[in-house]
């Protein structure tokens, strides 16, 4: 049996290095990860090679597939030949831009040990054997010092095969990875005014927004969409904040930043209260960091 202890020995140090390289300051990334883990609002089913059903959010997949329904359909069809684990890792990448190293190693070890003597052609051996051989030959310091290169190897082993068959190459994977890939796609989503399906009325003015973004980022709206059967696609804002501030909040929900060219000191002061009123899922320090940054910049003027 092959010695896979190298994974167990390196896992904690590798993950610690990743945390240092990608500090947890991206609340959008946290929200998307939580949205994937929940069963709320999922409206599409993906079947694995053993018939198991994995649910997802169609609109998120379309956002990541550049709104190409044909690509999405092809992805779902190819998943029918893949294991549940491969599909889950691929969805994790599509939702967050990252691969969960802990889950990858745990699932691989479980599957590999089960099939080592019984099935020499198992899904995992087919997909990962070459990657395992390469990584086992690497020195530990090389792995720790070249996390990005190793991350690419993991991604190839996990999702490159699936996405290549879908019609994408490694360049596409690199463009989609990380928080930069996520924010780039959702910035485009923000600009799609024709697909916005919900209206927030503030001071008798309308702010168009996608229900999806409110479901992902605001506990207030998530609760409303889950509990209210009313099919109305609009709501009046009762936060008593200005139209401009609400606009800035919506911009922030899509882009994880504030539009510096349009913000005022008054907006910042209102925004501090507004993020609590809308119950934003900010488990990270990003929101506070931005507010503190802009407040200090205005105080100097």
From TrEMBL:
Domain of life: Eukaryota
Keyword Amino-acid biosynthesis: no
Coiled-coil portions: 130-157
Keywords, alphabetical: Coiled coil
Sequence ranges assigned to domain BTB in this UniProt record: 42-103, 196-262
Family annotation (SMART domains): BTB
PANTHER family assigned to the protein according to its UniProt record, in alphabetical order: SPECKLE-TYPE POZ PROTEIN (PTHR24413)
Name of the protein this chain belongs to: Btb and math domain containing
């Amino acid at each position: 049996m092959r010695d896979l202890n190298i994974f167990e020995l390196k896992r904690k140090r590798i993950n610690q290095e990743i945390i240092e390289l990608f500090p947890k300051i991206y609340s959008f990334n946290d929200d998307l990860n939580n949205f994937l883990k929940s069963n709320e609002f999922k409206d599409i089913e993906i079947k694995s090679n053993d018939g198991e059903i994995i649910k997802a959010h169609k609109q998120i997949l379309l956002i990541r597939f550049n709104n190409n329904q044909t690509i999405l359909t092809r992805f779902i069809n190819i998943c029918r030949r893949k294991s549940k684990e491969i599909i889950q890792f691929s969805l994790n990448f599509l939702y967050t831009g990252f691969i969960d190293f802990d889950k990858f190693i745990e699932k691989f070890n479980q599957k590999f040990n089960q099939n080592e003597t019984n099935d020499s052609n198992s899904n995992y051996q087919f997909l990962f054997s070459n990657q395992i051989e390469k990584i086992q030959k690497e020195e530990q310091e090389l792995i720790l010092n070249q996390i990005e290169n190793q991350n690419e190897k993991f991604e190839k082993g996990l999702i490159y095969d699936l996405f290549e068959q879908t019609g994408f190459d490694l360049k596409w994977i690199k463009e989609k990875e990380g928080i930069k890939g996520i924010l780039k796609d959702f910035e485009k989503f923000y600009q799609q005014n024709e697909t916005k399906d919900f209206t927030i009325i503030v001071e008798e003015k309308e702010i168009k927004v996608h229900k999806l973004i409110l479901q992902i980022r605001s506990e207030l709206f998530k609760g409303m969409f889950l509990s209210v059967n009313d099919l109305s696609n609009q709501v009046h804002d009762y936060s008593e904040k200005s139209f401009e501030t609400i606009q800035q909040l919506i911009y922030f929900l899509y882009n994880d930043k504030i539009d510096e060219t349009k913000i005022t000191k008054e907006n910042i002061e209102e925004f501090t209260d507004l993020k609590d009123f809308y119950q934003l899922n900010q488990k990270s320090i990003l929101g506070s960091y931005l507010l503190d940054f802009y407040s200090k910049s205005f105080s100097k003027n």
